Fold:
Amino acid sequence: MGGHNVNNILRGSRIRRSSKEANDFTSSVGFDGPLSGHVVKINMAHMVSLVKSGEVGQKEGAACLAFLSGLPTKMDLDPSTEDVHHWLEQKAIASVGIDAAGYLNLGKSRNDQVATALRMEVRERVIGIVGRAKRLEASLLKVMARYGNLPLPGYTHLQRAQPTTVFHHMQSHFEAVEEDVERLTQLYARVNLSPMGAAAFAGTSVKVDRAAVASLLGFDGLVGNSMFAVSSRGFLLETVSVLELLMVDLSKMAEELVLWSSTEFGFVELGDEYSATSSIMPQKKNPVVAETIRAKCGSVIGEATAAFSIAKALPNAYNLDLQEMTPHLWRALDDTASSVSLMAAMLASVRFDPARLNETVGEGMSTATELANELVRAHGVSFRGAHQIVGELVRSAVEDGTTLEGSAEARLAEVSERVTGRAIKIDKARLRAVLDALKTLTLVGSSGGANPKFAARQMVQDKKEIEKLSDWLEEKENKLNESTKSLRGEVRSCMRREVRS
Ligand code: ARG
Structure:
């Protein structure tokens, strides 16, 4: 309590006393770091607009712009200030005087600025994550190219179900990541709209050119209603939701690598770089990176849940509660970005064990469905009838400790007679063919299925997807770089005009 920070310009004459404890509690300085560079740009674009419309004199405007241009990229925000906006204004006043810097906040508010700065940071981070996801897709493609032909037991309920291939399995992950990336690029369009000009929430009588400011800041358009512009965190909630979905997909892949690298499965070996050993059991090779990715998914779900819980039931328009969402956003972005990168790198290190895969794919009667299909196709039995017959053959195989082939040879005629009233016989070669895991794969005709003959064409399509992503990234990055250049140009010419006048 008492005279803490007497130079605090923002508290003005309205508020007399301050408390360090209360300020520390409500200040966002501790997590405004990622916003500070954007806030400087916002101040520049806004001041350029004010000078152009004649709201601020050339001299004052130039002094503000000179101050803003002179700020270092990495700023040490004073923790006794309320936030980056407060810090910046205070620093400007200390450095160029209140007669010039006192105009910085004409026609704008921290409310429109923070919504704008958040959107600027989110769009960059989305670009970064899309870039990492592109590398993940490339790693998946590499695994498909190298190991795709290997057979793989496919599971449902984690019970051996039907044979598939490494290609088919990894391509399913590729499609999942592709869907996540599509969500990110669609999200980008909704994020990249400018709230500036909304001021506190009602708009402003000060002449600001919203469209020009938006364009200098690299936005594709404006958030329309000024109240929506400052109060909505829909873009933030959508971001954490999309991250959550992406992390759920990654955690599935991570869980699978944990299982597959166990002795029980023995399908893959992970690179040493992505493993650790035990401090007591020297034989251990623990999949620590996969485990951490799996856990980070839980953290991101937590951050998203926290953000949603804060956003609910707030009255329109700005409430300081919104500020509390920011650190959750940062953590969700950080955890997701590093998880995607590490999953990409770890997958590129995976080595499949062909002998083990060939051996396991034949076990476990996973071709039973194909035997039932054969009874339908060639012997006029309904599928449910065939399911019953094969189910009984499987049960007796399990009981007698024999194979499905053995039990079919010995008992098909008798079981089928009981179920259908007809004794069915399948010749030995045909029986062997429908029960052979690798052969059944080649029988799959439905598109998107596990038949290896679909792989080559699919890989061509997957490569095209990756190229499309490169184009998207290039387009967005170029546009942001261009806007930064034109902002700098405008700032320079504003400052030059003052020197000439
Ligand atoms: N630091 C705040 C945030 O992150 C913006 C400031 C709004 N504060 C205010 N008193 N209107 O949301």
Q: What stands out?
A: Residues 367-436 form a domain with the Ribonucleotide Reductase Protein R1; domain 1 fold (CATH 1.10.40). Residues 455-500 form the longest helix (46 residues). The chain has 19 helices and six strands.
